[in-house]
Every structure is written in C-alpha cells, then in structure tokens.
Automatic annotation (TrEMBL), chain A:
Keyword Secreted: no
GO cellular component: a single term: cytoplasm
Pfam families reported for this sequence: PIP5K
Entry keyword Kinase: yes
Major localisation: cytoplasm
SMART domains for the chain: PIPKc
Localization annotation: Cytoplasm
UniProt record, GO biological process: phosphatidylinositol phosphate biosynthetic process
Positions of the PIPK domain: 33-442
Protein name per UniProt: 1-phosphatidylinositol-5-phosphate 4-kinase
Keywords: ATP-binding, Cytoplasm, Kinase, Lipid metabolism, Nucleotide-binding, Transferase
UniProtKB/TrEMBL annotation, chain B:
Catalytic activity: 1,2-dihexadecanoyl-sn-glycero-3-phospho-(1D-myo-inositol-5-phosphate) + GTP = 1,2-dihexadecanoyl-sn-glycero-3-phospho-(1D-myo-inositol-4,5-bisphosphate) + GDP + H(+); 1,2-dihexadecanoyl-sn-glycero-3-phospho-(1D-myo-inositol-5-phosphate) + ATP = 1,2-dihexadecanoyl-sn-glycero-3-phospho-(1D-myo-inositol-4,5-bisphosphate) + ADP + H(+); a 1,2-diacyl-sn-glycero-3-phospho-(1D-myo-inositol-5-phosphate) + ATP = a 1,2-diacyl-sn-glycero-3-phospho-(1D-myo-inositol-4,5-bisphosphate) + ADP + H(+)
GO biological process: phosphatidylinositol phosphate biosynthetic process; regulation of autophagy
Encoding gene per record: PIP4K2A
Protein name (Swiss-Prot/TrEMBL): Phosphatidylinositol 5-phosphate 4-kinase type-2 alpha
The enzyme's E.C. designation: 2.7.1.149
Protein's organism: Sparus aurata (Gilthead sea bream)
Residue ranges, compositional bias (Acidic residues): 288-303
Primary enzyme class: transferase
Signal peptide: none
Length: 443, 404
C-alpha cells in the first residue's frame, strides 16, 4: 500500500499557525513544478494578480495602458530555493488591458490566479505551429502557449483593435480570449507566453480533434500525428470521413454570425440600434446581434488561423467512466495521488485536487456542461445521429500577411499551379474561404 | 449605451473580483508622502506574502543567517500613482526574522497590516547620529533608518541574538528586531530596521529619558528641550529628582531581565546602549482627552491628530481589543514593556522601559576615543567611553538605583 499524501501535515500546521487570526481563501502555494520555468510562471501570475489587486480599476483604459508593462527581477540568496530558481525575471505586458479583458470575458482575477497557481500547469501533447509549446492550467480552464517575440510584437499591434472588438461584441466571439501575456527569464533564457481560455472543456473529454483552415493543400494528419493519443486531424481528414457537425439550425446560425464578424471584411459597417433585435425562434439566438461587422481578422491582415474543433462523444464518455469505476474498485487500496485510475487529459478533476470555487455547485449529467465555464460548447441537436458536444473556436491569429507570406504565395503557385487551392492566399481570400468551409461542415 | 454599461461594469468589477473570496485585507494603495515610505510598504507587503509561500522550517539553518531576498521593480506606464517606477527592495535573513516575530508573539499578518494599511508616520525622535525614525501608523512598530555598518553588525550578532531570544523565550528588554531591509529609490540606498515600539500604541508618553549611567555630557541641550517631547538624559533625571515607582515584584522581574540582557551585550562587546524610559501620567492623559473632546466639540469634526489613542477613522488592527480600556489600563501582550506605578506612588503612572541602540561594537574607534577622553577629564572621571564590561556594570548599577 503506498501513499503520497504525507506532506500535508507540517504544511497545514504552519499554515494555521501563521494564519490563525485571519480567514484567507487561498492555501499556501509552494509553486512546486517539474521545471523551473513552470514555477516561475506560477510565481509570476500570483505576483501580478496580487499587484493588480492594489491598483484601482480605472473607469476606462488609456492609450498608455497599451504600451505599459511591469517588470520584476528576483535575486534570492540561500532563500526560497525549494521550488523556485534563485534568479529569474518576470514581465507582464499591458497589465491593465488584460485585467480588463479578463473582466470582459467574465473571468474573476482570483479564479484566474487560482487556476494557474494552486497546482502546476500541465504539459499538453498538442503542438501548435512550429512546435510551440502548450500547457494547460491544472484545472484545464486555461491554455498557456509559448510564443515568439514576433508574436508578442504582433499582439501589441492588434491589441487596441482587439480590445475594441471585444468591447463591441461584449466578449461574445469565437476569437481566442487573450487573458495575459508574459515574458519569463530563467537561466538567462527568455520565454514568451500567452494565456487564453481553453477551447475545450475543463471536464468533458475530447475524443476527436480537428484543426481546420479551409485549405486542402497539405491538410492531412501525418502518420506520426495519428499515432498520438489525441491526434490533431485536418481538413482532408474531416472531408474524407464525411463528417458533419450536427448542431442544428439555430446554433449554426448563431455560430456563423459570430464567425463572420470575427473573420470577414465588409464594405458596409452599419448597425441597427444598439438594443438587441431579439429573435424569437429559440434561446440560442436570443443574442442575435445586428450585422455590425467589426472588420477584424481580415482587415487586420491576419491569416493562417484555424478553427479548432473538439468532439466529445457522450456515450463513449459514459462507457469510459464505467470502466474507470470498475478499475477503481479493484485497486481500492492503491492511492497513487491521482485518485482511482483517472485518465490523463481532461476527464474531470482528480479527486484530491484543490477545488476551484467554480467547480462547486451543480452536479452535471453526461454531456452536460456549464456554459459560463465551457463557453465554446455546443450540443448536437436532438435528431443528430450521435449525441455529441462540440467545441469550436478560432486559434492561431497572430500571423500577419507580410513579405514572407507573399514570397511563399509565389513559391506555392509555381509548385501546384494557379488553380489549385493553396494555403497561402491574401487575408481577404483566406477569410472568405475559411468562412465558406466552416458553413459547409455544420448542419 | 454601451459605454455606461462598461463604466458600471468597471465600478462593479472590484466587488466582482473579490466576491467569491473573503480576503481580510483591503485594497492597499501604498500611498505615502515620500516614495521611500511607499517602497517600505510595498516591500513589507511583498516580503510577508512571499514568506507565506515558504514553509516554516522546523528549525533555522546556518544558511538562513546569511540569506537575503532581493527584488527589483521596473514598471513602465503602470502603477505610477503611488509607487516610483523603479525601485529595489532587499530583505535580510527573511526566515530568521520571521522566526523572531513568532517568538515575540507577533503574527505576520498583523505585522503586515500595521506597516501597510496606512503610511508610517514621521517621528520626531532622533537616534544617535541623527538617525531617522518612523512609526507604523498604528504606533506598534518603529522603523529606524540605520547605516550599512549597523547592518553588518546585525549580521555579526544575529545568530547569538536569536539564540538568546530562544533561551529567554522572547522575554527580554533588548530591542525586538522584527525585520531588516535595504531600499533603493532613485539610486539611493536606505537601510531600515523594524523593532517593536517601546512605548504604548495607545497611551501617550509625556516625559522621556535616555539613560546610560554616565554623567559626562548627559544632559538635554536647549534645542532638544524646545521640542514637543524632548529626550532628557541622566543628569536631567537626577536633577529633576525623577523616580520610577514600581513595586517589589515588578522591580525584581525587571532587574533580572536587565541583568541577563546586559551580560549578553557585554559578551558580544556591545556598548553605548541606553535605557529608554517613557512616563505616562494617567491623570494628565485624562485631562488631555477631556480637553481634546472639548476642542472637537467646538470645532466640530476637526480632529487634531494628536497622540491620544488612534484617530477615529484609522483602520483598526485586529489585535485591538474590542472593549475600550480604562485610563491607565493596557494590554500587556501589545504594550509589552509597560509597568504600572505602585500604590504608594505620588502620581498614578505607567512606565515604559527598555534597552535601545545596541549595535555599537567596542572596536578600534572606541579604543581611540577612550585614550582621548582620559587625557581630557583625567583618569578618575567617569567618562562615557569605557570597555563593554565596565559599561554594562555601570549601566546596571545606575538603573538599579533609579528604581525606588
């Protein structure tokens, strides 16, 4: 019989001793992680959210806020060496702007902090473009992506317009929800990170994943990719399977409205009155907004983004849970610290993980979700072939159409001929093609 | 329109941010008259928060006495309201001072609140070499600006000091060292040490003495006497016919502590320390309170911010007892140095007495001064520069005689 839960006692004794007179919601956080950079990330987010709690929330953001940063350099000597490196730096870009964005995306700063600091972020199998590194918060609510300094520059370029777009659509968008942007320096090496809300659920497992661009050139998962536990399939795979995402007309309409606003250019920029035009057809369309196109991705000359699609198979998940319970009963004396045989990945929270307050309340049935937490989730419609939950949102929006892209365009035209659909087009063409493809896959 | 909604949202956001969690402290802006004070507040806030994530060890290690934490902040167009954009904060031996705070019965959160909820106040008191003093807004702690030599001396004695505190269970008249820091603002380095206030956080002191047991040059200057609360010295004490009226039991306990303390100091070859004595006159304080209430009644709403009790609108420390204390009463866990006058005393008083300024080491400089003074006053005269052993003996004897 083995047990890993031995470290609890001295820590909690000291915690109660130090904190005996005050009730403070958070526990002692040790920022323990498998790698120094994760510890620094945890420390940094903890620090910056605390700093912000002492800066009053302004009535509105100022231009300077989009150029601001906070920088901190830590140099400890023979102190706090257990979990943190002795020397590191942490920089947060535009703290006030991201705080405001978090608010607009209905993310409480304390919850954000807890998700990223109570337990170390987990490595994620998925690889973005150029093999960027992905992490998810331990509770799977947030994704932390390692980006390049060029991406940081691009973020700064679009940040004002992005913020304005979020203001106008009231946070209701399929675009990535940018929540924080940081630079960490450990052992002299600089790492840039962007935190976004997880497209997938923090609870429901995703059984199948697609990265769709609407292009058909080189859009197929490699054999190496297919060997992974959760491969990222692409456009060709999707089409070859004859897949459709069966979300029903109402959901489809609502989804495509958001998508259009997010990706397309429109000549007109008209707007019905600011009060909502209520659609009486269904609840899903109660926020049917006027066609006020915010001229976002295409106008900003951004392209090469994808629609990330995750599919949760309700029946399969129920089956998996029964299998897990069976395994748990057999091995009831073994506590490996993860709870009885919980699968890796996003299937629920391990029983002994500290509960995020957002977890409390409401026990969800199979295929059920809290739409304020899993904001991208859409249920399959009642007459769908299979009972599924879909998670769909846009990712990778930081590639700017520039000389590099123009060069690649020329090169690919030579290779595949002018008529072939090639992945390098101009932003406007890209957005049109993207939108068309997505409309077709929904039913 | 959308803008009104977003304004409402941003005003509501502070409560929204904190609505799910009960967090005892308020938003702290670290607002102060001086950037240095803002940095102290920020630094103590940061250091206590950092420590709350470091497990308390079972015992201190040798490395803990050489350790430090250093942090450098460089903000750009952010948080400029109350903080300088560039500053550094260094804490010496964080684990040692945390342990000391614990041994002195000081909860880290309370310590944090005292130093950060509101800016520390300038104090008129001047130490040796005109060192600068501040008190925490709630007057529980004193922040003294010291030299880098003092910091070095602290490091020299810290292990033995800590050991002494362990052995006497925090029961001593020596300064209670609670934190030691270096601040860098605008390229200037300032060293600060935090100690528990010898005087009361509530009861006012109307007369103050700094006693060494020497009689050479031990008299308050005219300039000093002009101050609101002058620091009188040995000669003044004797000439005033001042007495400390405490009963036998208190006197015994006090002298026992003092004896051990000065033995410790002599062993470490420290000298030139003083006994700081503060006298609270109960009747006089009651009179002053009545007068200030009258003043308030006359000038409705104008508070004179004097030293009697806490200003009505200052946030209270959780350690403040809920029931009001009657005149001359005190909480001995907060005002740890307070001793009541005995029943036969001519006036009802409370005395605050403890040892201060212990960081002067007997070294070459002192040896040189000894030689110089012997020439000036003759070998028999009591000169203030003797060796630590002699100093401690003379000190102890003098204090014994002033307690009736």
């Amino acid at each position: 019989m083995s047990s890993n839960c031995t470290s609890a006692a001295p820590v909690s004794a000291s915690k109660t001793k130090t904190k005996k007179k005050h009730f403070i919601g958070q526990k002692v956080k040790l920022f323990r992680a498998s790698e120094p950079i994760l510890s620094v990330l945890m420390w940094g987010v903890n620090h910056t959210v605390n700093e912000l709690s002492n800066v009053p929330v302004p009535v509105m953001l100022m231009p300077d806020d989009f150029k601001a940063y906070s920088k901190i350099k830590v140099d400890n000597h023979l102190f706090n060496k257990e979990n943190l490196p002795s020397r590191f730096k942490f920089k947060e870009y535009c703290p006030m702007v991201f705080r405001n964005l978090r608010e607009r995306f209905c993310i409480d700063d304390q919850d954000y902090q807890n998700s990223l600091t109570r337990s170390a972020p987990l490595n994620s199998d998925s690889q973005g473009r150029f093999g960027n590194r992905f992490l998810s918060s331990y509770d799977h609510r947030f994704v932390i992506k390692t980006v390049s300094s060029e991406d940081i520059a691009e973020m700064h370029n679009i940040l004002k317009k992005y913020h304005q777009f979020i203001v106008e659509c009231h946070g209701n968008t399929l675009l990535p929800q940018f929540l924080g942007m940081y630079r960490l320096t450990v052992d002299g090496v600089e790492t840039y990170m962007v935190v976004t809300r997880n497209v997938f659920s923090h609870r429901l497992t995703v059984h199948r994943k697609y990265d769709l661009k609407g292009s058909t050139v080189s859009r197929e998962a490699s054999d190496k990719e297919k060997a992974k536990e959760l491969p990222t399939f692409k456009d060709n795979d999707f089409l070859n399977e004859g897949h459709k995402l069966q979300i029903g007309d109402d959901n489809k309409k609502y989804f495509l409205e958001k998508l259009k606003r997010d990706v397309e250019v429109s000549v007109e920029t008209f707007c019905l009155t600011d009060s909502v035009v209520l659609c009486l057809l269904s609840e899903a369309l109660s926020c049917f907004l006027c066609v006020r196109v915010c001229q976002f991705l295409a106008t900003l000359k951004i392209m090469d983004y994808s629609l990330l699609v995750g599919i949760h198979d309700v029946e399969r998940a129920e089956q998996e849970e029964m299998d897990v319970d069976a395994v748990g009963e057999e091995e009831e004396y073994e506590n490996d610290g993860m709870g009885g045989g919980v699968l890796t990945g996003s299937f629920g929270t391990p029983p002994d993980s500290p509960g995020n307050p957002l977890n409390c309340g409401g026990f969800f049935g199979p295929g059920e979700f809290d739409p304020s937490v899993d904001v991208y989730a859409i249920k399959s419609h009642d007459s769908a072939v299979k009972k599924e939950v879909y998670f769909m949102a846009i990712i990778d929006i930081l590639t700017h159409y520039d000389a590099k892209k123009k060069a690649a365009h020329a090169a690919k035209t030579v290779k595949h001929g002018a008529g072939a659909e090639i992945s390098t087009v101009n932003p406007e063409q890209y957005s049109k093609r993207f939108y068309e493809f997505m409309s077709n896959i929904l039913s | 329109m959308a803008s009104a909604a977003s304004i409402a949202a941003s005003i509501a956001s502070k409560t929204k941010t904190k609505k799910k969690h009960f967090v005892a402290q308020k938003v702290k802006l670290f607002r102060a008259s001086d950037p240095l004070l803002s940095v102290v507040m920020w630094g103590v806030n940061h250091s206590i928060n950092e420590l709350s994530h470091v497990q308390i060890p079972i015992m201190l290690m040798p490395d803990d006495f050489k350790a430090y934490s250093k942090i450098k902040v460089d903000n750009h167009l952010f948080n400029k309201e109350n903080m300088p954009s560039h500053f550094k904060f260094k804490e010496y031996c964080p684990l040692v001072f945390r342990n000391l705070r614990e041994r002195f019965g000081i909860d880290d959160q309370d310590f944090l609140n005292s130093l950060t909820r509101s800016a520390p106040l300038n104090s008129e008191a001047q130490g040796r070499s005109g060192a600068r003093f501040h008190t925490s807004y709630d007057k529980r702690y004193v922040i003294k600006t010291i030299s880098s030599e003092d910091v070095a001396e602290m490091h020299n004695i810290l292990k033995k000091y800590h050991q002494f505190i362990v052995e006497c269970h925090g029961n001593t008249l020596l300064p209670q060292f609670l934190g030691m820091y270096r601040l860098t603002v605008d390229g200037d380095e300032t060293y600060m040490i935090v100690t528990r206030n010898v005087f009361s956080h509530r009861l006012s002191v109307y007369k103050k003495y700094d006693l060494k047991g020497s009689t050479v040059a031990r008299e308050a200057s005219d300039k000093e006497k002009a101050k609101e609360l002058p620091t009188y010295k040995d000669n003044d004490f004797i000439n005033d016919g001042q007495k400390i009226h405490i009963d036998g039991e208190n006197k015994k306990m006090f002298l026992e502590k003092l004896r051990k303390d000065v033995e410790f100091l002599a062993q470490l070859k420290l000298m030139d320390y003083s006994l700081l004595v503060g006298i609270h006159d109960v009747e006089r304080a009651e009179q002053e309170e009545v007068e200030s209430e009258d003043n308030e009644a006359e000038e409705e709403g104008e508070s004179d911010g004097g030293g009697i009790g806490t200003p009505p609108d200052s946030p209270s420390n959780t350690l403040d007892s809920n029931k009001p204390l009657s005149p001359g009463e005190f909480d001995p866990t907060i005002d740890v140095y307070a001793i009541k006058s005995n029943e036969t005393a001519p006036r009802k008083e409370v005395y605050f007495m403890a040892v201060i300024d212990i960081l002067q080491h007997y070294d070459a400089k002192k040896k040189a001064a000894h030689a110089a003074k012997t020439v000036k006053h003759g070998a028999g005269a009591e000169i203030s520069t003797v060796n630590p052993e002699q100093y401690s003996k003379r000190f102890y004897d003098f204090i014994t005689t002033i307690l009736s």
